[in-house]
Amino acid sequence: MAAKKDRKRAVLAVCDVEEAYARSFLEYLQAKKKPALPFELKAFTDVSELKAYAAEHEIEILLIAERSADETVRGLPVGKLIILSEGMTAPLLEEYPRVYKYQPSDMVVREVLDLYGAEKLAGFAPVRLRSRQRMIGVYSPSGYPRRMLFSLTLGQVLAQKQPVLFVSLDSYSGLAAMMNRSEGRCVSDLLYSFRRMGDVPAASLREMTVQLRNLEILPPSPMPEDLQILSGHEWADFLETILQAGSCAVLILDLGDTVRDLPELLENCDEVWLPSQADVLSAVRDRQFEEAVLKRHPSLEAKMKTVYPPHLELMSADRQMLEDLCDGEQGVFVRKLLRREVL
């Protein structure tokens, strides 16, 4: 005789063969259950286990990775089936609501609950949603060597009117040496804390940052390996945690190629600046990057802005040179950009 279906509490299930994603997303939901979500939470990495569970229990919401959403899964008697999309969605799945998989977990939850229906959640406290601070990514597909200088100038100009935190995720930026911070705590320490506890202590963040004029800078990691340990959605969660732990209005990411799942990280930025040079090779590399990325992440097209900063003849590589950036030609260039953009 079949077991009675469990009607005590609605079930929210997530199924993804990418075990690390399913596990980390479930851990996020469990950690953020105050205010409580009105669901029992289940995670599956095997479709057959999901089907066996669905045969004996009611599932109110099923978040299913698009690669696992075959015909038998789509036929399961669930209240709401939502596709975890990785970018381009197969035509067979276009009729189903979907959320983008590689974005901060709290944004996934917000979109899921919006799709589920606000009226069904009346009486329940809302989950924590993404903070209202802005995240700006700066990346150069052409390998523009002065990308970091553009990023720092942008940060210093914005910091004249609002709190800004600058985070370098580049392998060998040289920034620590120029700031006379070759030793001491850095972003690697926050990464360790985040992976161990799922959090970034606000006190640690405050103690660690250094100032360049009004710009707060998080000392970069001296070890490229530290920048390779997080996946795209983990980076998104880590950076969102930094935003909520700090007091900045804007977070600027200076991005190199060491970071894993770079396009997924760019998806989570509100603006993406692509500094480049006006030469044939740079143009070819920029175009190849845009074609490859936009094929899987078409939403990035509205965020990406290619810019051509003025050439800088560097007389030194020290802190004073960094502080002088926004007073020179680079600063004039950035201010003109900002007057044309709403940041």
Helix content bin: 25-40%
Measure the end-to-end span: 62 Å
Q: Do you know the CATH architecture of the largest domain?
A: 3-Layer(aba) Sandwich
Beta strand %: 15-25%
Q: Mind telling me the CATH class of the largest domain?
A: Alpha Beta
Shape: elongated
**Secondary-structure element string:** EHEHEHEEHEHEHHHEEHEHEHEHH
Mean pLDDT: 83
Please describe the biggest sheet, giving its number of strands, its sense, and whether it closes into a barrel: 7 strands, mixed
Which strand order do you get reading across the main beta sheet?
Answer: 8-9-7-10-6-11-12
Structural class: alpha/beta
| Rg, alpha carbons | 22 Å
Low-pLDDT runs of 5+ residues are: 1-7, 122-130
Instruction: Identify the CATH homologous superfamily of the largest domain.
Output: P-loop containing nucleotide triphosphate hydrolases
Oligomer: single chain
CATH overall fold name of the largest domain: Rossmann fold
**Treating each run of at least 4 consecutive H or I residues as one helix, how many helices?**
13
Helix-strand blueprint:
Elements: E1 11-15, H1 19-31, E2 40-44, H2 47-56, E3 59-65, H3 71-74, E4 78-85, E5 98-100, H4 105-116, E6 134-138, H5 147-158, E7 164-169, H6 175-178, H7 187-197, H8 202-208, E8 210-212, E9 215-218, H9 232-245, E10 250-255, H10 262-267, E11 271-275, H11 280-296, E12 304-307, H12 319-323, H13 329-340
Parallel strand pairs: 1-2, 1-3, 3-4, 4-5, 6-10, 6-11, 7-9, 7-10, 11-12
Antiparallel strand pairs: 8-9
Helix pairs in contact: 5-13
